[in-house]
Amino acid sequence: MLKKDMILLLGAGGHARSCIDVIESEDRFIIVGLVGLPAEVGSVVLGYSVLGSDEQLPELLQQVTFGLVTVGQIKTPESRIRLYGMLKKHGTPVPVLISPRAHVSRHAQVGAGTIVMHGAIINAGAVVGVNCIINSQALIEHDAVIGRHCHVSTGAVVNSGVQVGDGTFLGSHTTARQGLKIGERCVIGMGQKVLADCESGSSLPPLRNLS
After folding, report:
1. Pick from 89, 123, 144: which residue ends a domain?
2. Per-position DSSP letters for the chain, written without gaps between them
3. What are the C-alpha distances in Å from 140 to residues 106, 159, 190?
4. Total tally of structural domains belonging to the chain
5. Are residues 77 and 119 in the same domain?
6. Do 85 and 177 share a domain, yes or no?
């Protein structure tokens, strides 16, 4: 029986629950606990304790081999980028997490700290950057490129050759036409059909109309 490494989760909200389910399914790590907001310290998430907040993070990282950012991302990637930077600053390795119910081609590349959720597909030649969320039933088609710190939401379809810039959010059931370029830190809302290139910082529909 192989020895399992210990992992600390940075984030204790709803997305952390989904991450725990993938980690338990993959069965490679022992979750020692979570780091959350000060008000969350002492609470329990799916049987795992919230051990501290950012203040205790350096001490907690000394007790584990791996760390993973488990904060969600919708309108902004800032929290995930900050926490990923803290892991790198402390020299804590971040693994790639892939659900056993996902498919990632052996000809694809997936960056450190990225989690691939149940039912997701990443096809041959695709490249996914570090610290991304490829959520349940999302499809990353062949030769698509997803930048760092992106969230491809549930059921989203990124067709062949699409390039997605760093920090971009693609909402649930978004579909991006093949060969498009979507810039950095874009916010693409639920169910949108992306049929033309999107400049960095843009939103679809315009951000003021998003609930």
Report:
1. 89
2. -PPPEEEEEE--SHHHHHHHHHHHHHT-EEEEEEE--GGGTT-EETTEEEEE-GGGHHHHHTT-SEEEE----SS--HHHHHHHHHHHHTT-----EE-TTSEE-TTSEE-TT-EE-TT-EE-TT-EE-TT-EE-TT-EE-TT-EE-TT-EE-TT-EE-TT-EE-TT-EE-TT-EE-TT-EE-TT-EE-TT-EE-S-B-TT-EES-GGG--
3. 14, 6, 17
4. 2
5. no
6. no
Interval 89-136: pLDDT, tens: 999 999 999 999 999 999 999 999 999 999 999 999 999 999 999 999
Question: Could you say which of 70, 89, 108 is where a domain stops?
Answer: 89
